[in-house]
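Lab notebook, bench 4. Still working through the backlog of constructs that have no structural model yet. Next entry is a single chain of 424 residues. Request: give me the structure tokens for it.
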Amino acid sequence: MTEQRTVAFHTLGCKLNFSETSTISRLLESDGFLKTDFDNKADVYVINTCSVTDNADKECRQLVRRIQRKAPESLVVITGCYAQLKPKEISEIPGVDLVLGAAEKFNISQHLKEFTKGDSTKICSCDADEITGFNASFSLNDRTRTFLKVQDGCDYTCSFCTIPMARGKSRSDSVDHVIAQARQLAESGVKEIVLTGVNLGDFGKGPNGNKIQDENFFELITELDVIDGIERYRISSIEPNLLTNQIIEFVANSKKFMPHFHIPLQSGSNKILGMMRRRYKRELYAERVHLIKMLMPHCAIGADVIVGFPGETEDDFKETFDFLHSLPVSYLHVFTYSERDNTHALTLEPVVPVNVRHQRNKTLRNLSFMKLQHFTAEHAGQNRKVLFEGGNKNGIMEGYTDNYLKVTTPHRPEWINKLIDWKL
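Model written out:
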């Protein structure tokens, strides 16, 4: 009887990547692999990469070097967005054995059966136009909260973004299949589902990119709302132009969809939004935020912002800062612009010096800290329900309120995966 092969995973990037890694892990476990921690020695290491920033590329290289020092005889498989965009570059990293593009990551079992350590590095990639299938995925964390992928790919052409090249055209699961998965997750004890996708509000296009008859994101959330067993849903991120008044009003009246939105802004300057090829202006963004806060004053609102985009002057940045300062958003995810190959932004000028980009990032992160402090203080003394998670960090457990305030308390096993009334 042969010894069971071990596999370890590391995920870079977004919640979508975490849901896909989790699904790939279950595929390999069902094929006889034993999952182990990434810090342990394993027969196979799988790195699911991101390519939104340069940092993700560098981190991938560092991880491969770490594996080489620890377990030079192990197989190293790289998949994800970086693998789709730059397969040849990755194949030349010493120690990489298999590079699996977007269409091949879920066929990993077959590729591992056909590969032996010592073979020359194998690249299994494809053109973005050939990425047409939809692979349903979800990640499980102590069976408390799951990230459920319902949409993939993007048809937008934002000038800074490589995701359409890495993940292909927009395509979705069907409402019926998402409902079936939600019921299955409820039966396994999951209390909260976070809906994820690349462009979530564009839900409703089938695996080949054609519109599914009468299916859209609003229909999906109304169907999910009535499923027994799932107590909470969150919408991970949704474009402001796709976040309709209908969706906002629905969440305001739902007992299951949490008062929490993450709405990418990217810039508070209409000039820069135009150069970014975004599909809205700051006025629409402000309109959405104010409607949410009017209907749900307690709602958490997060925003993505990019600083240092080509052509962003001090005045443009000040416009962004002042706009965000004036808006009742709760926190920011701040990204420093980094040049990505084959994007339109590379042709734009003037280029913002890197040290200026970092300074602007720091300024907005300070604003984010103050925003979150203010939002938290507004709820002091209130009672809100907290869903506690299973992790035990030095005797401390964590949970989140409905409106995404993090709560920590001494670890109590009987509270894991329970909704507890909590005075903030």
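Notes after review: The chain has a mean pLDDT of 92. The longest strand covers residues 300-307. Flag for follow-up if needed.
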